[in-house]
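Schema walk-through. Below, the input block comes first and the output block second. Nothing else is stored per chain. Lengths vary across the set, and this one has 181 residues.
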Amino acid sequence: MGASHSKSDSTDEKVFRNETPISFSPDVVNQLSDRLEAPQTTPERQSILDAHIRARIRDELEHLKRDEESVRREIELALEKENLDKEAAMAGKASEGDDNTTGNVKNSTVLLGDLEDIRAKIERHQSSKAGPEFPEVEAHGKAVADCYKKNKNHPLLCSSEVAGFKAAVDRLEQHYFYSLH
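--- output ---
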């Protein structure tokens, strides 16, 4: 059923013949034959191709760097959130009196505030320590140091300066003790 019509016979080929001759100029023929002999690209074309490839590579590198930076930011944010969640969970356990934790666990913002308070106290202490509040003790201490420097081989000669320093320290301790009570 129709099988005979769907097959093409090889005897029905049609051939068209060109009645007009085609001719090419010698320049075109020489250029085509030169390209067949040397299939390499010209230096100008090669430099254009190289520049294009370099530009594509540079664009791709920039794209990858942007992607890498965004992934890094996402990871840092996720880790920060995870750490804050852990700190909050640990602080909750510590406040409940869990046996697995010792002491209070604080988050980083509270710890930073505590560090600032301690730093301020240290600075106040250092500034108060800078001025000589007890000139008598400092004078006797300086006298002991000078005596030891003069008598390096005979430190026992400085016993009177040491006794004066001890007496000044005792007076300072008594003053401090009575000021507390």
